[in-house]
Amino acid sequence: MRAYRYLLKPIESEELKKHVLACIKEIEMNKNNYIVIKNNPNTYKIYSNEIKYIEVQKKQMSIYTINKSFDVRYSLGKIEKDLTLDKYVRCHKSFLVNLSYVENIKPNIAVLESGEEVPISRYRYKDVKEQFLKFLGETIC
C-alpha cells in the first residue's frame, strides 16, 4: 500500500474528487505502459517509464533506458506516436527526452539525473523549458 495524498478533515467533496481523479489518471498512465519495437530478427518490449532519452542518427535509433540501450532501425516520428507525449519532449531534430529524468535545463542542454547531457536546439529551447516547468508543476501538485 502506498499513500497517494493526504486530506485533512473536514473533507470537501470537490477536493476529494480532484485527488481521486488525479490518482486514477496516474494509475492509467502507468498501467501496461510499454512500446513494442520490431527490429528484424528481434522484437523488444520497452517500458516507456524506463526510457531516459532517444537519439536518432540517420536511420539508426538508440533508445537509452535506465538499464541498457537498444539500437534499432525505427523513426522518431513513429515512436513519438507510440509514447505518451506529456512526459516526452522533442528537444532536437534527433532527440526525444523523458522529462521524468531531466534534472535541469541549461541553454541548449538538458542535464539528466544520471549526468548525461542531451542537446536542445536553439529553436526548441523556449518550448522545452516551458514544458519542463509545466511537467514539474504537475508532478508537485
Describe the protein in words.
The chain is an alpha+beta fold and 141 residues long. Helix content is 29%, strand content 36%. The strands form three sheets. The protein has a five-stranded antiparallel sheet with strand order 5-4-3-7-6.
Low-confidence stretches: none
Relative helix content: 25-40%
- State which percent range the strand residues make up: 35-45%
Number of helices: 3
Structural class: alpha+beta
The overall pLDDT average reads 85
In one word, what is the shape? globular
CATH architecture of the largest domain: Beta Barrel
CATH class type of the largest domain: Mainly Beta
Strand-and-helix sequence, N→C? HEEEEEHEEEEEH
Number of strands: 10
Report on the biggest sheet. Answer: 5 strands, antiparallel
N- to C-terminal separation? 21 Å
Radius of gyration, CA atoms, in whole angstroms: 17 Å
With strands numbered from the N-terminus, the spatial order across the biggest sheet is 5-4-3-7-6
Q: Can you tell me the CATH superfamily of the largest domain?
A: LytTr DNA-binding domain
Overall domain count: 2
Oligomer: single chain
